[in-house]
Write a structure and sequence with these properties.
The chain is of the alpha/beta class and 378 residues long. The protein is built from ten helices and 17 strands. The longest helix has 15 residues.
């Protein structure tokens, strides 16, 4: 998926250890901005002086604030002159709420810029060309895969024009999300539940469907994550059956209730409601994603039940799967995933496992689809 500048020299294959270490540090710094920079990307920057010593570090800390390069240049001061900047994303070339980073690097006297991933945003791209025109050596591609992974939500949203969607589920080893009587608390451990709050804190919005809303009365706000920005809580409730006493309607975090065009919402005064057309009695996945993208949501954390997950998978709108598997067996009860439009094994949604780790007694598996399935709407 990388879209590298064809003119830039690719540093990835022959980079000295010092370059790799500096870019690796920039990738680490970028991760500190997860959950607080949207709708902007996470970016890290390291500045070395003319001798190769690190003299400045920075990351994009919040939307509207200085970009990573500016933080790093401020830390470096005059030591940046004649030095190298290592940046996880091609320096921007436009003036938004902050000035263009390409110009800041030029003004600081930087003579070489190494960046990991080209900027796919047409409004901000072209920074590398501006740097080269100013006589600065530019190199692209160093640790590109690592930088891509750390900035996957923003890069995917810009390339696809919709939020990056993570589907999270919890299940027993035999794939059950609840017992036969419908009880589902608690399948996984306290450690896994705490880990879910960390993932929520990294997302712009959290989504559940009407079934989960009625059965579990979820709260969906982030707890016990220091400095967390609360995500937008979204409930997909076609017929507006939500009760005014639902926990999701408190003031712990912003809330959006998504309903069908003709739903009666008079019992929800003061609640933000989004009305969308129905397709075969259902709200379209991509209608919802288009609206959320337009309002600045770049990453969506899908916590709904098996039906909602199936609709997103059938629509080709799941970019990452995070499964928490508990060492337990139920033998009956609802599966973690309902109908996703797969009728033959040849049509199975194949995944690449990117991580498998122990979380308390549980196993957390993270995987991404090997290819995006074409969107389908009902």
């Amino acid at each position: 998926m990388r879209q590298e500048d064809p003119v830039a020299t690719h540093a990835a294959h022959a980079a000295p250890d010092a370059d790799t270490r500096a870019m690796g540090r920039a990738v680490e710094l970028a991760a500190r901005g997860l959950g607080s920079t949207s709708p902007n990307p996470v970016v890290g920057c390291v500045i070395t002086d003319a001798t190769g010593a690190v003299v400045g570090e920075g990351w994009h800390e919040r939307a509207g604030g200085p970009h990573a390069e500016v933080h790093a240049l401020r830390a470096a001061g005059e030591a940046a002159r004649g030095g190298t900047a290592y940046v996880t994303l091609e320096p921007c070339n436009h003036t938004g709420r902050t000035g263009p980073c390409a110009q800041a690097l030029i003004a600081a006297g930087i003579t070489r810029v190494v960046y990991a991933v080209s900027d796919p945003d047409p409004r901000a791209g072209g920074g590398a060309a501006t740097l080269r025109a100013a006589g600065i050596t530019t190199e692209a591609g160093l640790l590109a895969d690592e930088a891509e992974a750390g900035n996957a939500a923003w890069l995917t949203s810009v390339r696809l024009g919709r939020p990056y969607v993570t589907w999270k589920y919890a299940a027993t080893l035999d794939g059950r999300s609840a017992a036969a009587d419908g009880s589902s608390r608690w399948i996984t451990s306290a450690e896994s539940r705490a880990d879910v709050h960390r993932l929520r804190a990294e997302a712009d919005a959290v989504l559940v469907g009407g079934g989960t809303l009625r059965q579990d009365d979820p709260h969906l706000a982030v707890r016990d994550v220091e400095g967390a920005t609360q995500p937008l809580r979204i409930a997909l409730d076609t017929h507006a059956t939500i009760l005014p006493t639902a926990r999701i309607l408190d003031d712990a975090a912003p809330t959006l209730i998504v309903v069908g065009e003709d739903a009666d919402t008079r019992h929800l005064p003061g609640v933000e409601v989004l009305r969308l057309p129905l397709h075969g009695g259902r709200i379209g996945v991509h209608d919802l994603l288009t609206h959320l993208y337009a309002r600045g949501v770049r990453s969506l954390f899908l916590e709904g039940g098996p039906t909602l997950a199936g609709a997103f998978l059938e629509g080709g709108a799941v970019d990452r799967v995070v499964g928490y598997l508990a060492p337990a067996l139920l033998g009956a009860g609802p599966a973690a995933l309902a109908d996703a439009g797969v009728t033959n094994i040849s049509h199975a949604v194949r995944l690449d496992i990117t991580e498998a780790v122990r979380i308390g007694p549980d196993l957390r598996i993270t995987a991404v689809p090997t290819v995006h399935t074409p969107p389908k709407e009902h």
